[in-house]
């Protein structure tokens, strides 16, 4: 077991290295000139050259790559071209709303997904099952940006239950800041719930077919105990896997909902950075997302191996 | 043959429904020029933002173009992009997956790279690539294929590995059959199922992601109709012309829904074991 | 006798009490006006807040509350001394002597004097592109005494004072505290000490700018009229929120989250009219949509080809496609609108707004156009640019001209347009409100970024332009203006398609708001 953990941790290194390479080259291969955007249309060639030099953008690509790599190992992600602050600082500031949205979406998704999945499995082939299948299918089929706009239209513009956009940080508004995050989280939760419901349902269906369940039934155990105590626990493994693997997708989803609801999180920051070629921020955002995904996956795999000693990485 | 036999054996509400919807969509997109007289890109700005009427079933957009027409052609675009992405993903993913599964030396290197690629949500890779290569249908197809093929490669690789050491393959090898023959005869046949299932889900994903990319402005170039771009355009007019945003959104949902249904149905049909084998940690999006 | 006295006394008393009550009421209303935090929604965010170091007009618009100029424009575009008390122009325009107001307080408590103005001016001259227009003609600035300054020119430059107050982009000259100018030099300023009715509080990039009332503000004694005259800070605090999405800006005002939103979709005008809580603010057509040619690349290095496109387009249809509701746009051929002293009534006659595809094709033949696709380069983020490009492509293709449409995000557009090849047509919104034709945003001379224009015709234009610069006599200058307009419509290095209005909206409880070319929030209060 310990060897497995060590092996996986060691594997992180080459993966993150490759991720860094990909992040750097993707960013710096994008056409578009941030310097001219900063200086405006009337900038002269000499002004452009001057700014390029002070930003270090006139160096050859390979050199910039190694300099950047050396810096990030030290934890220095450079300074944003537009936000006038070190990237690591900006990333840290924007982390909270994104995490809140992601966690809220995940929690909402898990609770409703589990519920829906269990209901479906227990009522296999009956109306409730069909209903749950259909609902979860819709969940994974609706484009998140469209859903966000629909929700905004109905609940914010027409009903006025939630603010349309923007964000007040926790420090200022306390729990009031959650008002701004509910619709974005719900948008993302739809898809999570759909995925989790589907996985739960199929895992439960398989488990419920097993012999030991039949034994428990014949023993006369109540349905509730069978479902929750035995079946659910043993179905959790694939569900947890699905949750873990979809966390990356969830993070990707925050980019879109943050943009639509104007929440100053890491996703909005990343999209803005791409739109105006804020190179240090783009690089950092890409690495950030990838690293989180890799770490979460590691977690999932480890807990997986932990919970099911039968499966091991070859 | 086995496929059809299995099909007739059980009831398949999912597959049937989804195939019906998909045939309908295919019909709409193929016969778009016949079904509507209007040109999807010709402007008629003096007639902008008209509500649905007899002349314009779904009204007109901000350029006076007939929305119904654009929806039909937009479906066609989504289908084209989805199909192209699926084909490319299957080819690339298949080749890489088979190579990795069959030749263990390759496997180590390839898997590391694939793992790293899969560390990014597909949409982010696609956005970045689209930003680099520029917008446009071809670039979107390439960008999405690039984002999806690692997953496909992985699936193929798993299938290959599970087959590779089976008895009948070993005996084929012992008898001196060439690698390529083995690959084609046994491996492809057995990985066909997971490939088909994943391909269907990729089709759905491609439609969603193309819409998202067009929404963000890095997708299909105007004036070509794209359902996602139509949603973007409609945002500004949402309150005065809600039909502009409802129609394309519903279309996207319909297309994606039916494809997901099909994928589910196929998976149930082809290999019930695939559903949630602990080894196969499949991701539906 | 006593009875009369009594009655008179009572009447007087009543009158006194009445007028006291009235005054108290008025005073109380004035008092009542004070207070509140204004939330305004703007569409773009800024990279920093230093107007000398950027061409972003939003920086100036916001910082107009923090900084003031020596001169400002009023609502009739009359140049008005603001931080200046008075001025004199001598020696045929070679010397300007400016007297400053003497008791104007800076945000740091000190009194503004010539040192502050001179330091700010030198910086403006060096960095700001308005200053760079002036610099080639300028000699030096001298301090006469603590409140008097002399500006000396090597060559007469008629637009000088107009540029100082310019409402275009970032061009305006503002007075900053000397200590800040010394501290930052040419680097981006992030500590702000000005003389304006509001002072800088906080800036969160991509989110908001917060300003709070400057309690010791010293207003001008002239009558308030847009940027000139007395500014009263009723609001305690002003928060500029950066909200790129138009619908979100709109929804914010509908729900009361914002009191003001700029640039909202004009198509929603009827909705706002119907809403009791929202007022429409239509800014009169102060924007032009310019069609800009790449004059260095075939086919548009030939003036016949350039003229051809003007004939090939149905301008009215473009109006509907680009802007929409006709109450928000109008066709206008001159660079200056009717009512502006520089308006030339018959500019572009015979070509502007004339839809003649046949003639267009003839002209293209005459120019030797080989049929290669024409590349239209435009930005995605601006509605006019985007919809205009799509509409123009459609119109040109309908008459058989091949067009390649390139819509990109702003950084890519900026990069591609700065090159001499690869694009043919570009659309850009220009500001129409220009008090002086020679600080016209589009007219900073030929061979600049907008035109890539370098030919016999461009040199002729340069000459006309130089003549105008030297001519101090208004009437003679206007004649030169007429020549310039007719030359512009003959060689057409670029042309304006139409003028359009922007629509802002505000909550009904925001009172006394005046819609000008840049939104400002002094003299306006919340009920």
TrEMBL record, chain C:
Gene3D superfamilies: Dipeptide-binding Protein, Domain 1, Dipeptide-binding Protein, Domain 3, Periplasmic binding protein-like II. GO terms for biological process: peptide transport. InterPro entries: Peptide/Ni-bd, SBP_5, SBP_5_dom. SUPFAM superfamilies: Periplasmic binding protein-like II. One of its GO terms (molecular function) is peptide transmembrane transporter activity. Keywords: Signal. GO terms for cellular component: ATP-binding cassette (ABC) transporter complex; periplasmic space. It holds the Pfam family SBP_bac_5. This is Peptide/nickel transport system substrate-binding protein.
């Amino acid at each position: 077991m310990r060897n497995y953990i060590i092996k996986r941790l060691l594997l992180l290194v080459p993966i993150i290295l490759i991720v860094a390479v990909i992040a750097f080259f993707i960013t710096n291969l994008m056409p578009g000139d941030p310097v001219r955007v900063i200086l405006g249309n009337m900038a002269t060639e000499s002004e452009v050259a001057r700014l390029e030099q002070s930003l270090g953008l006139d160096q050859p690509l390979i050199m910039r790559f190694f300099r950047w790599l050396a810096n990030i190992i030290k934890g220095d992600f450079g300074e944003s071209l537009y936000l006038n602050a070190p990237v690591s600082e900006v990333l840290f500031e924007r982390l909270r709303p994104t995490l809140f949205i992601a966690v809220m979406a995940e929690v909402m998704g898990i609770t409703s997904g589990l519920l829906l999945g269990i209901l479906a499995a227990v009522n296999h082939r009956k109306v409730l099952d069909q209903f749950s299948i259909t609902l979860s299918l819709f969940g994974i089929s609706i484009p998140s940006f469209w859903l966000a706009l629909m929700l905004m239209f109905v609940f914010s513009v027409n009903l006025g239950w939630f603010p349309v956009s923007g964000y007040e940080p926790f420090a200022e508004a306390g729990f009031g800041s959650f008002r701004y995050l509910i619709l974005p989280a719900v948008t993302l939760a739809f898809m999570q719930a759909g995925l989790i419901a589907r996985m739960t349902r199929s895992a439960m269906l398989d488990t419920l077919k097993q012999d030991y369940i039949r034994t428990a039934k014949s023993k006369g155990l109540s349905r509730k105990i069978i479902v929750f105590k035995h079946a659910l626990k043993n179905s959790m493994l694939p569900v947890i896997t699905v949750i873990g693997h979809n966390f990356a997708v969830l993070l990707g989803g925050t980019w879109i909902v943050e943009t639509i609801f104007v929440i100053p999180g890491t996703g909005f920051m990343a999209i803005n950075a791409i739109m105006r070629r804020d190179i240090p921020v783009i690089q950092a955002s890409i690495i950030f997302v990838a690293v989180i995904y890799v770490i979460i996956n590691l977690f999932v795999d480890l807990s997986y191996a932990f919970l099911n000693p039968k499966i091991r990485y070859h | 043959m086995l496929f059809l036999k299995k099909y007739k054996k059980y009831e398949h509400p999912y597959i049937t429904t989804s195939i019906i919807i998909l045939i309908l969509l295919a019909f709409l997109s193929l016969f778009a020029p016949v079904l509507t007289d209007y040109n999807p890109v010709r402007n008629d700005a003096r007639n902008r933002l008209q509500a649905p009427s007899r002349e314009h079933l779904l009204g007109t957009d901000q350029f006076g173009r007939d929305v119904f027409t654009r929806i039909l052609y937009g479906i066609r675009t989504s289908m084209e992009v989805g199909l192209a992405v699926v084909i490319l993903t299957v080819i690339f993913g298949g080749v890489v997956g088979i190579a990795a599964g069959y030749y263990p030396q390759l496997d180590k290197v390839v898997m590391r790279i694939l793992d790293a690629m899969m560390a990014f949500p597909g949409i982010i890779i696609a956005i970045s690539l689209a930003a680099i290569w520029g917008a446009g249908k071809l670039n979107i197809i390439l960008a999405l294929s690039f984002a999806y093929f690692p997953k496909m490669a992985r699936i193929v690789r798993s299938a290959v590995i599970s087959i590779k050491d089976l008895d009948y393959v070993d005996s084929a090898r012992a008898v001196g059959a060439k690698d390529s023959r083995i690959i084609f005869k046994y491996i492809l046949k057995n990985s066909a199922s997971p490939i088909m299932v994943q391909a269907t889900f990729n089709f759905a994903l491609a439609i969603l992601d193309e819409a998202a990319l067009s929404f963000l402005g890095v997708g299909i170039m105007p004036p070509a109709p794209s359902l996602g771009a139509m949603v973007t355009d409609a945002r500004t007019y949402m309150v005065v012309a809600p039909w502009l945003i409802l129609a394309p959104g519903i279309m996207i949902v319909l297309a994606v829904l039916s494809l997901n249904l099909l994928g589910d149905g196929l998976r149930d049909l082809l290999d019930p074991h695939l559903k949630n084998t602990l080894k196969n940690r499949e991701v539906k999006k | 006798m006593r009875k009369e006295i009594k009655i008179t006394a009572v009447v007087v008393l009543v009158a006194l009490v009445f007028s006291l009550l009235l005054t108290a009421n008025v005073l109380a209303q004035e008092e009542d006006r004070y207070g509140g935090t204004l939330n305004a929604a703007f569409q773009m965010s800024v990279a920093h807040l230093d107007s000398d170091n950027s061409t972003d007009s939003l920086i100036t618009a916001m910082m107009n509350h923090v900084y003031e100029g020596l001169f400002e424009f009023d609502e009739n575009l009359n140049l008005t001394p603001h931080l200046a008390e008075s001025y004199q122009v001598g020696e045929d325009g070679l010397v300007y002597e400016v007297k400053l107001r003497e008791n104007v307080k800076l945000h740091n408590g000190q009194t503004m004097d010539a040192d502050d103005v001179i330091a700010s001016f030198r910086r403006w001259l060096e960095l700001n592109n308005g200053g760079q227009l002036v610099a080639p003609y300028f000699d030096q600035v001298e301090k006469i005494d603590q409140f008097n300054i002399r500006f000396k020119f090597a060559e007469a430059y008629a637009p000088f004072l107009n540029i100082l107050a310019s409402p275009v982009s970032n061009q305006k000259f503002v007075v900053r505290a000397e200590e800040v100018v010394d501290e930052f030099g040419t680097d981006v300023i992030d500590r702000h000490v000005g003389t304006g009715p509001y002072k800088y509080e906080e800036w969160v990039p991509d989110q908001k700018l917060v300003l709070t009332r400057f309690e010791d503000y010293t207003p001008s004694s002239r009558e308030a009229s847009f940027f000139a005259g007395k500014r009263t800070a009723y609001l305690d605090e002003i928060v500029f929120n950066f909200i790129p999405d138009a619908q979100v800006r709109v929804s914010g005002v509908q729900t009361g989250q914002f009191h003001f939103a700029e640039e909202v979709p004009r198509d929603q005008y009827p909705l706002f009219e119907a809403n009791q809580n929202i007022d429409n603010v239509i800014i009169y057509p102060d924007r032009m949509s310019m069609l800009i040619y790449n004059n260095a690349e075939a086919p548009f290095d030939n003036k016949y080809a350039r003229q051809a496109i003007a004939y090939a387009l149905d301008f009215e249809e473009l109006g509907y496609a680009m802007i929409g509701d006709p109450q928000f746009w109008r066709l206008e051929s001159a660079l200056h609108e009717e009512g502006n002293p520089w308006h030339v009534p018959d500019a572009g006659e015979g070509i502007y707004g004339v839809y003649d595809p046949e003639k267009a094709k003839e002209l293209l033949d005459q120019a030797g156009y080989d049929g290669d696709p024409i590349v239209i380069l435009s930005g995605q983020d601006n509605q006019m640019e985007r919809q205009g490009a799509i509409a123009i492509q459609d119109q040109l293709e309908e008459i058989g001209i091949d067009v390649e449409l390139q819509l990109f995000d702003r950084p890519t557009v900026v990069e591609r347009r700065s090159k001499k090849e690869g694009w043919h047509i570009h659309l850009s919104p220009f500001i129409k409100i220009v008090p002086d034709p020679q600080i016209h945003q589009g007219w900073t001379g030929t061979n600049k970024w907008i035109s890539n224009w370098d030919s016999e015709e461009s040199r002729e234009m340069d000459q006309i332009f130089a003549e105008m610069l030297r001519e101090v006599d208004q009437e003679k200058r206007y004649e030169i203006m007429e020549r310039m307009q007719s030359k512009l419509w003959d060689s057409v290095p670029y042309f304006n398609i139409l003028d359009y209005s922007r629509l802002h909206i505000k909550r009904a409880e925001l009172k006394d708001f005046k819609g000008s070319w840049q939104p400002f929030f002094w003299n306006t209060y919340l009920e």
